[in-house]
Amino acid sequence: MVRIRVLVVDDHRIFAESLAAALAAEPDVDVSAAGSGPAALRCLERAAGEGRRFDVLLVDSDLGGQVPGTRPAVPVPVQESGEDGLVDGISLVAGVRAAQPAVRIVVLAEKDDPRRAALALQAGASGWVAKDCSLSRLLTVIRGVLRDETHLPPALLTGVLRELTAARRHRTESERLVESLTPREREVLRCMVAGLGRKAVAERLFLSPHTVRTHMQNVLGKLGVHSTLAAVALARRAGVGPAELTGDVVERGGQLA
Prior knowledge:
About 50% of the residues lie in helices and about 10% in strands. It is an alpha/beta fold. It has a six-stranded parallel sheet, with helices on both faces. Helix 3 runs parallel beside helix 4 (about 115-125). It is elongated. The model is unreliable at about 65-85 and about 245-255 (pLDDT under 50).
């Protein structure tokens, strides 16, 4: 029998323990649980190092910090989160998909939220399921995503498609605006994305601060925004990455103008 290795990631300990116990009763499922994003990442790394990678992650859409509690009474290991910061659900999806693309991820949600569901799919999730769904439904989704299926509640389909279409439209418009920049202005924009101020940009590109100021004003005008932060946000939507920085440049000019 091929066994499915599942990791439940939820900071509500009672829910995580109950779900893990229910899944552990299935003859073809091995399950563990983690109480936070950092704990989940450590668990994934440890399993990969031991050659026992997880197949499916079930991630709380509202994942935050671990709620203090006692050790679980169910026969599955629950990892402790420690005090090394928080990782929200959508960020965890993106991070896991980048590090271990073979892992399939299903987001567990308290309520239907088309925007959050669209963000989860964009981050790499394969499904969005209500936390109060039946165990049989959840098992169907788990087995389905392992066949590369995508699972969404029917009531969410229209809203999610609308959100994905809007995101694509915003990206296309942002890309068009960035393409209107000259090569030098795109260089300046990449420096802005990297967080460099005017003086640091001038030193990096061997330009005078006055010239850099002119380029920055031109960038803002062509992008149709009124601040550096807005320009950076638009650039990121268009897929513009930051300029590569040396430690010296970062120390001298790490503040936005």
